[in-house]
Amino acid sequence: MIKFASVMTPEWSLETPSMAQAYLTGAVDGKFEHKKFDLNLESAKLLKKQYGKYWSPVGHFFWTNQETFTNDILPILKSYYLEIVEELSTFDVVGFTTYFSNILVANWIAKQLRGRNKNVKIIYGGPACWNREDWMLNDCPWADAVCGAEGEEVVVEILECVENKQDFSSVLGLWW
């Protein structure tokens, strides 16, 4: 059975969680082995001393700026994220839900994952797959597929293709 991991990286509201993982779970559970990784919540626990800063109403500015992400946030969370990468490298397909506020973290983890396991299929879905070309669509060689819309049906088709050892490039709804 294909192993699928769905990943939600920071920064997203802790009071109103993303529905993406719930929708993906409804689409894939019972058909594929699935594990959810809510790195947004776990990162908030690890950054508890800075919680108010990084999850404030303007906290997304820290996560969307390459310099503050690399110099301020990543040094605190890097060892935790590398542990997650190690676990994700055991999955067949890893899907990242992307938003404007979490794309830098998703990209960092996905690049590390690609370096750890060249065979894992990395897919991106969600609103940020189209709105910032400098973050997503340009120079993204670590991603195998990008869905620029809601991806529940697309994910199921991709997983079926991977399970049947078929190319999934013709799945409708993919940008590539």
Outline:
This protein has 176 residues and is an alpha/beta fold. Helices cover 45% and strands 14% of the residues.
How would you describe the overall organization of this protein?
The protein is an alpha/beta fold and 176 residues long. Helices cover 45% and strands 14% of the residues. It is built from 8 helices and 5 strands. It has helices at residues 20-28, 39-46, 51-54, 60-64, 66-88, 103-116, 128-131, 152-163; strands at residues 3-8, 33-38, 93-97, 121-125, 145-147. Strands 2-1-3-4-5 form a 5-stranded parallel sheet, sandwiched between helices. Helix 7 links the parallel strand 4 (121-125) and strand 5 (145-147). The longest helix has 23 residues, at 66-88. The protein starts with a strand and ends in a 13-residue tail after the last helix.
Describe the structure using short key phrases.
45% helix, globular, alpha/beta, 5 strands, 5-stranded parallel β-sheet, single chain, 176 residues
